[in-house]
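Entry for zinc ion complex. Fields follow.
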Amino acid sequence: MKVKCTIIIINHTQSVMCKDCLKEICPNRGNVCLETGSYLLNYSGCASCKSLSFILIKEKNVAEEENGDETVTYNHTCNECGHLIASHEYTFTLDEEFQEYSMNCALCGYGSDTVSILPDDPREKQLF
Ligand SMILES: [Zn+2]
Ligand SMILES: [Zn+2]
Ligand SMILES: [Zn+2]
């Protein structure tokens, strides 16, 4: 599964991120998918209050479908002034054979990973 960064497209209609706080908008993270936390290396400091303090996780929401699919969304906000830095989306989908993870966030970037739920996944042997 190929995931494209949709944040930039979304941002034309709604404010989901602040490019002034970021070093790079939606970097490609390969198969890195964060279910929580912040990618601090991409944070250049709050453009609103000029402080480089902690990033808070706000309004975390986990939506679970009946078929086991999961979507986690939350906002990255400035600890000092509450400025919204970026909105984060993480999805987990369960296929018959695979678990798919994907992440989309202007701060943390985008990535996707697929893990076989079968015990003898030939790709896993290549990895280790
Ligand atoms: Zn900002
Ligand atoms: Zn701030
Ligand atoms: Zn994020």
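NOTE: The two ends are 22 Å apart (CA to CA).
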